[in-house]
User: Fold these one by one.
Assistant:
Number 1:
Amino acid sequence: MNKINTILLAIILLIFSCSEESADDNVDDLVYDPENCVIGNNIDYDCDGVANAEDYRPKDPSQSEDVWGKIVETKPEVFFASDISQKIKDGFMSDLNLITSELGNYGPLEWWNLGRDIDAANELAKIYCQRRVDRWQQTFSPDFYYESCLVNMMYPNHSVGDEHVPPWFKEDPNRVGDFENYRAIVPPSGNAGLNGMREWGIHLLTSSLPYSYDDNEFGFTKENYSTTLFHEYIHVVQSANLYSTETFVDEVNNTRRVGWGPTSMAEGAASYVNEFLLFTFIKDGKYIKSPTFDRKLRDVMRWKMERVQGMLQNCPNFKLQDLNYGNICSPYDFGAWGVAYLLNKIDNQYAMQEVFWSSINELGYYQAFEKTFGLTFDEFNSEYHEFLKLPIEDQLLIIPDL
Ligand SMILES: [Ca+2]
Ligand SMILES: [Zn+2]
């Protein structure tokens, strides 16, 4: 790969970002118009064969019991806008099947893929919003929540009348709907995000067009998106292993669940492990790489380290827990190398998903960290600063030769 491609790739990887966010629902005073099923004398709103009184989520047929954090049989539900080609859909599903079979199929999961076409995006929004209304998973005005949802997803290119647009949307020049925000991204940029929703009991993800699965239109191979898909699914695993519903709003206005940990560690784990898994799958014959894909894991980590060293002069005394989204020192790159350091230290490349995250519920984040990695977070910060002073060839020795 030549240098221009390398730089472009670096930019694309940076643009692919994500966050865990969540919003409060407010469904207390909705009136349900029943077309419901009946079991004996008992109502079964969602017709899943479980009466309301016994049903964990009486309005959601995918959740008759609490399966948060459990491996489930139900396949992930993946939605594609109608302008997305079969080739892209096939590539996406192939990678999702691979990562769920490797890391566990956590559910229920919905993944919404936007294309570029506005009408197709509005059609997708209708499916999304009807489901939210049916399942009482609304965050909008109870008076006209289906239309409000459509506006919320697709503003300013929504398909319903402007009387459904709340005044605060019109007053905010930067307001863009949750789906429209992804649809409007122009390739070769892209974005994908895990958007919760713990309070609905589901994993909810949204992506812009996964164009990399369709040949070399923009000069990228499918591996560029495979790592993004793996990255997002690693967040799902992290989220599934955390049971808490308690949230707080952090300093960059992200709503996060207690136990999620510092942004640099969540993003760093996803960013390092997504690369590690790709190269492991290739080695094991589980992933057929593109003919022109000639990177090694150490190449990718070398580029990340070069970026870290470039940024380091702007944050010479950084603490990993302070590197949040938007920081001049990227939580993705600093975190990825921090995680690589930790996994090498305990000689277990699978420790995040197999040891650490599942122990947070019981111990809390920082105690689980100490128990898993054998040092306090402060000690980790100090050791990591020392590690960053080493020559790059020495640093790369901790990365598996894949
Ligand atoms: Ca039911
Ligand atoms: Zn991420």
Note: The radius of gyration is 22 Å.
Number 2:
Amino acid sequence: MKQLVVYSSRSGNTKKLAEFIFSRLDGDKEIKSVDKAPDPAGYDMVAVGFWFKAGQPDPDSQKYLKKCAAAGGKLFLFATHGSAANSDYAAIGMNRARELAAGAQIVGCFDCPGEVSAKTLENAANKDPQPVWLKDAPAAKGHPNSDDFYKLAEALAEAGLVEKRQPPEKGMFV
Ligand SMILES: Cc1cc2nc3c(=O)[nH]c(=O)nc-3n(C[C@H](O)[C@H](O)[C@H](O)COP(=O)(O)O)c2cc1C
């Protein structure tokens, strides 16, 4: 099975998830940033990672997700965001990604908070109105953390992309 991990990452959070996924996949695999990503049609499974901007996948990832939709293969979606884990806001962003990729076979999804830089926090605080996610952003500090990687490993197993490791212990990922 030819597998490709594609990520868009401005400050490194989503790249960490991408590298973790890449390290867990067995067999034929490649990892590329979205600006260098090949046509998804050449792969059996593509994992696409993005960061949230304006409540949805960042613009480069939006374009790539549309290509994945056209290719119609297996797709795993992953993301980081300043908003809280399991928040409605995060769910809306992931649903937007699903819509963009409609046509692909989505085998799994994972998203978690990602630390927001001080400069971004300052810029967002100066906006009027302030973005909805700003109130959650301080809690994203330190994410993705070992608990997030643990959950990502579970999501990959759930999607059938990796074998379940026994016993999957919390704290084993750093
Ligand atoms: C310009 C900008 C806009 C952002 N907009 C959102 C947003 O709409 N919703 C959100 O949850 N997080 C937002 N964030 C926070 C990032 O999505 C979050 O920090 C993410 O982990 C960054 O990923 P990266 O390190 O891979 O670039 C924004 C960050 C930036 C820099």
Note: The helical segments are 13-24, 59-71, 88-100, 118-125, 146-158.
